[in-house]
Specification:
With 224 residues, the protein is an alpha/beta fold. The chain has two domains: 168 residues, Ribonuclease E inhibitor RraA/RraA-like (Glucose Oxidase, domain 1), CATH 3.50.30.40; 49 residues, no CATH class. Helix 1 packs parallel to helix 7. The chain starts with a helix and ends with a helix. The model has no long low-confidence stretch (mean pLDDT 96). InterPro entries: RraA/RraA-like, RraA/RraA-like_sf. This is RraA family protein.
């Protein structure tokens, strides 16, 4: 199993939160202003990056024909204003017919009632009834932007939960980062254990890390 698949497997099996992943990334990686349409979903997977531009979703319809299964489809909207990139029809095509894990859009979505009724795993920058146009853009998409964003996002890892979306960059998909995630999970377990069972203050736990001085406790944790 490649390191990307091992990281995704660890994230999913342990339901590692976006909070923990962002902490492991040095408190970075969040997609700003992107929140879930439906609560309670957890998804992590390899990103397939697609785009819309010039208030047109023609490029999206074109690109989604060939997406592989089991990806998180990340849609970036360029010069689309407040128009929705797409709604229920395209979401169904991506999630059901192409068996994608989730949809993430940095722009808005439409058909909120349908998206909520189906309880689909979708994260976006808001909801609106006004969509992009089904027309071919007059100009070609900027090749430099396409190349830059494709190289940045295609093959990266998206982690999505009720807090939002965090992206693990491709340069961080390493053994070292997987070890960081293990340590982050262990730290969280220790912090809640010290709070719930040792009744320590959060100042002692988080700031002073007094548990590190408890040699018996730490030796026991290392054996678990």
């Amino acid at each position: 199993m490649e390191i990307r698949e091992r990281i995704i497997d660890y994230l999913v099996r342990n339901r590692v939160s976006t909070t923990e992943v962002a902490d492991a990334l040095g408190k970075t990686g969040v997609l700003p202003n992107v929140m879930p349409v439906n609560r309670g979903h957890y998804k992590a997977g390899k990103i397939k990056w697609i785009y819309a531009y010039e208030e047109s979703n023609w490029p999206i319809h074109e690109q989604v024909q060939d997406i592989e299964e089991d990806c998180v489809v990340f849609v970036e909207a360029f010069d689309c204003g407040d128009r929705a990139v797409f709604g229920e029809l395209v979401s169904k095509y991506i999630l059901l017919y192409h068996q994608s894990r989730a949809i993430v859009a940095n722009g808005k979505m439409r058909d909120a009632a349908g998206l909520i009724k189906e309880n689909w795993p979708i994260w976006c920058g808001g909801l609106t009834p006004v969509g992009c146009f089904n027309r071919k853009p007059e100009k070609d998409f900027d090749e430099e932007i396409r190349k830059e964003h494709s190289e940045r996002y295609d093959g990266a890892i998206a982690v999505c939960d009720d807090c939002g979306v965090v992206i693990i960059p491709k340069e961080c998909i390493t053994e070292e980062f997987l070890i960081k995630l293990h340590h982050m999970e262990e730290q969280e377990d220790i912090w809640f254990d010290r709070l719930d069972h040792y009744k320590e203050s959060t100042f002692d736990i988080v700031c002073k890390k007094k548990y590190l001085d408890d040699q018996v406790y730490m030796s026991r944790r290392s054996l678990e």
